[in-house]
Amino acid sequence: MSEEDDWQREFDLRWADSAPHKEPSARARMLTARWKENPPDPAPFRADPEPVRPRRSSWMSTAVVLGCVAAVIVLLGYAQIRNGY
């Protein structure tokens, strides 16, 4: 690209950005049309999400992980005994 093309593009961008009126996006137009017929219910800013179920005890998770590790160790030991290593 030549320097003149760069200057022309920069000029066009400045001209477009300085436009007094910008058309709303398609989503904004869609929501405006929908809300004219059926306005949304008022909601507090950053409303709380649905209540979260209490998590399982961390001890239970720890026990499951340690149980799996112990089972793998026993299984590997049994495999070594069986193969004669």
Topology diagram in text:
Layout: H1 3-17, H2 26-37, H3 58-83
Tell me about this structure.
The chain has 85 residues and is mostly helical. The protein has a domain at 60-85. Helix content is 62%, strand content 0%. It contains 3 helices and no strands. The protein starts with a helix and ends with a helix.
Total helical elements: 3
Q: Strand portion, in percent?
A: under 5%
Q: What Rg, in angstroms, do the CA atoms define?
A: 32 Å
Largest sheet: none
Uncertain parts = none
Principal-axis shape equals elongated
Helix content: 55-70%
What's this, in brief?
This protein has helices at residues 3-17, 26-37, 58-83.
What brief labels describe this structure?
mainly alpha, 85 residues, elongated, 0% strand
